[in-house]
Design a protein that fits this description.
396 residues; 8-stranded parallel sheet; alpha/beta; 2 domains; 47% helix
Length: 396
Amino acid sequence: MKRIVLPVLAALTLAAYVPADAHARRGGKVVLHGDIVIEKDSRRTEDVLTDGSLRIDGTLAADAVSLGGPVTVNGLVTGDVSTMGGPVTINGRADDDVSSFGGPITVAGEVSGDVSSLGGPVLVSGHVEGDISSLGGNVKLTSGAVVDGDISTMGGLVEREDGAVHRGSVTSFDTRDIRRALLDVGRVARQGEKRLSPLLAGGLATAGLIFLFSLLFTGVILLLLPAVFFPLHTGRAAEAVRADFWRATGIGALITVAFFPAMLMLLVSILGIPLIPLALLLLVCAAALGLSGFSVVLQERFFEGIKRKGPASLLGQVVVGYALMAGLLIFGNIIPLIGGVLSFIGFMMMAFGAVVGLGAAWDTRMGNRPAPVPPAAAAQTAPAARPPAQEPPPQS
């Protein structure tokens, strides 16, 4: 999985460099315009980021990034070599990873790290010490190629000529296999007279239900943790949803929209990369806490609508609220005709609840402070102003 994700991470890193002017004012890297050439016998220790072509005949002791132009390494690069849309040709040596988003990669020299391509082919006639991964492109090893690591492709083929040396394993997944498998399943399903058809259909349905119940059970465990270990924080998150529902919705929507660009900004900083797992963990914890609070409010509205009394304990309220959303998903996969609509409604309720819950978690600072009181409610609960006290008349 890591080898498939590498090209995507490389593309995200490149995309984070695009707002160069604003990023440069904060001390980031500046996009250079025009073609860049590092002459032979010269050495550069600063990262190179350009929207033109890049040719390295000397030594680059840093990263090389091109936004659309070709990258040619005839000398030595000790950092990463990345391009978005342009071809990468390694005639010299690259001591770190080489990645391309949409462009072909040609290795005629030596690469000490991994080679990752998203959408472009990889041609190796030199030496690659790391792994090769390609998403949507073929990988070809010519007769003089040497690859020490593994080769992984998804949507492409691996071709190896006679004389090529490959010391690792090959993992190739052709997307055409999915189409053939679906056609085979459809053909078997149409053959009702065979005994295998009911067994196959029943097996697939059972496997799907087991997978669905596993996901829902995992969700129950995740939502019960805040209610069991942090009941006060969960109650405050629910109170934030009750106090100002649309405020929590708006804040949660802003967090959802801003989270992905924030991750891109962390990717461009060496100090920010270690913070990415912490940010993801914080997002999951906030969503779990907020969704637990949303479940409490949801079950309250449900029992108010049917004129019944709901559970008194916080844990029971969270379970019932989650069961209302999960029940739509379960029955949606069982009931014919309208089942798809029910599943969609249940999924949207969970997604919307997570967004509202993020806003509630922000408002209460993960439940560490009470929910803010809306101005209208504060005005209604504020004590009436007392008239100024009159001084007693002077005594004669």
